[in-house]
Structures are given as structure tokens and as C-alpha cells.
């Protein structure tokens, strides 16, 4: 493992980076910036826009891979940090990567491991070399460099791998630190590209940083785009910033990114955030929220989130969501499990299986939401889709529509209040 420090980004233009994907732009919304596309990855074609569930330890909390396949998922996330600790790189190399380890023959995206460290370990410290931290197992000092992150992701064999970036909370008021993190992320991308052993088999995505400062974001876009990675992520968001700021950053970045590359906004999973970010030109999203909130008894539905722990559901014998085609909600005579709200209510108090069933429904709901958005874009009726979505979510009460969503969509030609 090398820990070479590069202090300046290499000059561009540079020779094109090999790519293990092809990106077909299938349709563009004639009003908003929304796109429908197909991403051909080593383990199959993925229809965009897409929500990607997070399988932290090579397992989606509570779901088997068959159940995950039943939700229609073609691409899920694994955490490099967790896989690097357990089973560890030697085991991954021996078994031939995470697809084989998990028995998952569809696509995997891995994060760099950096965010996990900075967010999980209080003692993590970022230097030009990498992220220094103490092992959560035995307290020994460790260092995650861009080279080591890429080496781990090469062993995992993920179809999409993420660069190690210097990620700090968007709410950080220190603009100098924000600029340093952005510039360091560019230098680290160069080190990631140099360390990447299999660019013809695995796709490395860069990550645009720069906090909420649009000038920093613009500069970062220019540097990152010049490096010509197969796909591009917008990072550092969903850290507690105001939704107005989130929308401005996404809108600014997508305006500067090449049209024929996938755009991934990291850490986004609330339904209204997804449909608005799609309107702003983003294609891919991930979040632990649908499975995490399932553990608290929350069902994501088109009419908002329902807490099935509430006693009012004790005698509600309808499905979690009427019309949902997930294996949890689908009636038994249609091949589903015919699970009722009352049953989940009964289980959530004491049995983890309640959370498993809700995870199936919640992940399916977000995948299906993105599938419906895609269909609407293909048929060039995304503005109508947005109006219907917000009407369903707020039961027709326009006074309740969030101001940030109304403003962001007005910016791309859709007036929700008209
Ligand atoms: Zn369902």
C-alpha cells in the first residue's frame, strides 16, 4: 500500500479513462432537467433514475438476496469499511469478491470507506495522506489512503467504486476548510485513478465536493469532469443543510456535468427529495433510511409515512399500501404474502420479522417510485407526475407543500401550485 502524497492535480486534458459501462440516454423531459437512461454495467442493465438500497455488511438489514431481487433491485450498495474489516481483504481475494461472497449476481456499488470512518469514529483525522483512525476492534492506529480504499474496492470487485474524498458536513461554517476538502478530493481522485487496477472491469466514480458554496462546486465540477471518470457523484449533501441549499447545489452541478454520464446524488432517500432531484437532472440515489425507518415500524407510502406501531392499526386488515405489488403487500392468491397492517402492528412490538417485512415494502416502494418517474419521463409527462405525487403525498392540500420543493420545481418550469 502506497501513501505517496500528491500536492497538485495533474494538468488536463488527459487520455480517456477506460470504462466498464455504457450509458444510453433514453429520453429527456421537455420541461424539467429530468432524464431516463439505461446504465449497462458488468452485472446487467440498470434503468435510471434509480434508488439503490444499502446492504451494509453484504446483507440488506432483514432481507435475503432473493427478497431483494423480488423488489426488482439491479444495483445495491455495500460498505467498503465494513467489508474491509470483516471478512477482510484476504478472504475477499480468496473467494473472488463480494458478488461471490454474497451470492449476488447483480450489480454492486461500494463507497470508499471514508465517510463511514469520519461519521462513525470520533477520533478519525484527515491529513493529506488519508484518513487516520483507531481500529474499533483493538484501538491500533490505522490509515485509509486513496490507494488502500481502491485496493479494497478492487478486491470487493464492485461494478461501481467511489473515490476516497475529504467529506465534511455541509453545515461546516469554515470556508477555508471547505475549500481545502474540495481541492484535496481532486488530488485524491488522481491517486485513486493511478491506483485502480481494473478500470476495464470496474467503474470509478468521482465525487463533487464544495459544501454549499456554489463557486467551490463549480470549480470542483470543472476539475472532476476533466478527469473523465465513467460516472460522477455529487457528495457531501444530506448532512442537515436546508433543502433549498441542497437543491441549489444539485441544480448547479447537473448544469455543469456532461449529459452522457450517470449522475449520482449520495445519501438521498426521502420520496420528495428523490422526485425533485430527478427534476434537477440527477439519476442515482442511495440511503439507509427505508430499511432504518422500517425498524421503527414506519411504512413509506404514497400518502406519507405510517407508523404501524400506532394502536389504530391493531385492527386494520388492509395491506401496508393498497395497490402495492411488493411480496409483502401482494395477496396470497397473487403470489404474495398478503401481510396486513394489523399483523405488522402485532409484530413490531416484539419480532424483528416485522421490520423485515416493512423493509421489503419500503425498498420496493422507492424502487417503484423511481420506476414510475422513469416511465413518466419516457412518456414526457414528468411535470404531471410531480403534480400527482405531491397531491397524493399531501392529500391535495397545496398549503402543505414544502416551500423548498415548490421553489426548486418552479426553477425547472413546473408550478405545483398552479
Ligand atoms: Zn408493499
How would you describe this protein?
- Strand 10, helix 6 and strand 11 form a beta-alpha-beta unit.
- The strands form four sheets. Strands 4-5-6-10-11-12-13-14 form an eight-stranded parallel barrel, surrounded by seven helices. It has a three-stranded antiparallel beta sheet with strand order 1-2-3.
- The chain is of the alpha/beta class and 418 residues long.
- It has 14 helices and 16 strands.
- It has two domains: 25-287, Queuine tRNA-ribosyltransferase-like (TIM Barrel, Alpha-Beta Barrel); 293-398, no CATH class.
- Bound molecules: zinc ion.
List the strand order in the largest sheet: 4-5-6-10-11-12-13-14
Counted by DSSP, the helix tally is 14
Ligand kinds: zinc ion
State the CATH topology of the largest domain.
TIM Barrel
Which CATH architecture of the largest domain would you pick? Alpha-Beta Barrel
Largest sheet: 8 strands, parallel, barrel
Percentage beta strand: 15-25%
What's the end-to-end separation, in Å?
Answer: 58 Å
**Total DSSP E strands:** 16
* Structural class by secondary-structure content: alpha/beta
What is the CATH C-level name of the largest domain?
Alpha Beta
Globally, the shape reads: globular
Provide the number of structural domains. Answer: 2
